[in-house]
Write a structure and sequence with these properties.
The protein has 436 residues and is of the alpha/beta class. It contains 9 helices and 21 strands. A hairpin with a 2-residue loop joins strand 2 and strand 3.
């Protein structure tokens, strides 16, 4: 008999923190229909291939509550003291509420607003791009509760020809036992534009079982360049983080998206990437450091829908103690999408004998003259590498840390923006130091 989940275990009613009377009618209808679908959805089961190898006990949620109002001062201070030096705008959300915002070097004409404010001020523009992904990699129940809830996060619209040099930064903090937030990022890059956005997810306290149900919509129109980074460093002990990304790249556009996971007890990342126009390119990266009993579950889909499109996926996991990772990825080349060039690689560095890595890469090709490959590797740091560094006066412990840092930072180095990469490098190094 298939496993079922009771909706009452999650929320007794739709997690709303405001009346929503000012929201457009289409959005209120979406919230209502999404709540109805959520109530009818029994949730993940062992028969679902999209949950293969996953520990479904960790996906069972109960007694969740909308995050309460808390004093935001300490979180604001943390956000301001730990950010890249240059930024175009900076938003800080604490328990789903905006508590700080500022502009650095945001170009004229760029719309950069909290998502709920954008729904009121630009309802038609938001509707054209909001939650348009019809596919699913197993997380339909998470997507439905996200669509039914009051959201935090930002809407970014870059008009034709505008280049946003510095990244837009968004911090999400969550605190309180069973407290739940719903971050949403919607980025629309019009023709021949450039923009970069980074979301950061953190816990207020280290010992609270908090939850984040995130969703990201990325749209790059003709000739646009769009970069998105999700940096997650929540509590290792009991926090849970779900994030579902959707990317759509138009003609001759390029999208880079990345997950960097250092914290949370359980993480579920889903990423669907569409190369919809001729010459479109999507690059999907992930750098993950898992320790203790953490589980990182990542599912991806690269869909080539036009000729002469390209994509490249590189996921790297450094796994320690009894932690485990799961990767399932599929490259899909649709009929008529000739001259596709696509790659998919998952590499796992096992730091202990009890660490576990599961990988399921795949190809589905229905076109001619394509170049596609996929692969996965798992292994430990070799004794030869340790000996080589020891011969140069480096201790064995430091040698392992250096090799592991280099292993993960290869992924981060492929992103754009020196300040942003330096920020991520430093946070990864800090996490390794805490493990030592």
């Amino acid at each position: 008999m298939a496993e079922k989940q009771s909706t009452d275990q999650w929320f007794a009613s739709a997690p709303l923190t405001d009346s929503g009377d000012s929201f457009p009618e289409w959005y209120q209808q979406l919230q209502a229909s999404s709540w109805k679908q959520f109530c009818e959805n029994s949730g993940p089961t062992r028969l679902d291939q999209n949950w293969r190898f996953a520990d479904l006990k960790k996906a069972r949620l109960s007694g969740l509550v909308t995050a309460p109002v808390v004093d935001p001062e300490s979180s604001i201070k943390r956000a301001l003291n730990n950010r890249p030096e240059a930024y175009a705008a900076h938003f800080v959300f604490v328990n789903n509420r905006l508590v700080h915002s500022e502009s650095g070097s945001l170009p004229d004409g760029v719309v950069c607003l909290p998502i709920n404010e954008a729904l009121v001020k630009h309802p038609d523009l938001v509707q054209a791009y909001f939650l348009k992904e019809e596919g699913c990699l197993g997380g339909s129940k998470f997507r439905q509760i996200h669509a039914a809830a009051t959201l935090s996060g930002v809407f970014v619209h870059v008009p034709r020809g505008v280049v946003c040099k510095d990244p837009i930064l968004v911090n999400h903090f969550v605190g309180g036992e069973a407290s739940t937030i719903f971050p949403h990022t919607l980025v629309v890059a019009e023709d021949n534009t450039s923009v970069s956005v980074m979301d950061t997810f953190q816990s207020i306290q280290e010992n609270e079982g908090t939850f984040a149900f995130g969703n990201v919509d990325l749209h790059a129109n003709n000739g646009a360049k769009l970069q998105y980074v999700a940096f997650q460093d929540m509590s290792d002990l009991s926090a849970k983080h779900v994030q579902m990304n959707s990317s759509k790249a138009g003609r001759d556009s390029a999208i880079k998206s990345a997950f960097v996971n250092l914290g949370a007890a359980w993480v579920r990342n889903e990423s669907i990437n569409h190369m919809s126009g001729t010459g479109a390119d999507c690059q999907i990266y992930s750098a993950n450091l898992a320790s203790g009993i953490q589980e990182y579950d990542q599912r991806t889909l690269q869909v080539h829908e036009a000729q002469h499109t390209t994509s490249d996926l590189l996921f790297k996991n450094a796994i320690y103690d009894e932690a485990r990772t799961i990767f399932s990825g599929l490259i899909q080349v649709l009929p008529g999408s000739h001259h596709t060039d696509s790659y998919q690689t998952c590499r796992n560095l096992l730091g202990s004998k009890t660490a576990e890595a599961n990988a399921m890469p795949g190809l589905e090709i229905d076109a001619d003259q394509v170049k596609c490959s996929h692969g996965s590797t798992s292994g430990q740091i070799s004794d030869e590498e340790i000996f080589y560094l020891q011969a140069r006066g480096i201790t064995a412990e430091d040698a392992r840390r250096i090799i592991s840092l280099g292993f993960l930072n290869e992924t981060v180095s492929r992103l754009d923006g020196d300040n942003l990469k330096e920020f991520l490098f430093s946070r990864v190094e800090r996490k390794f130091a805490s493990l030592a």
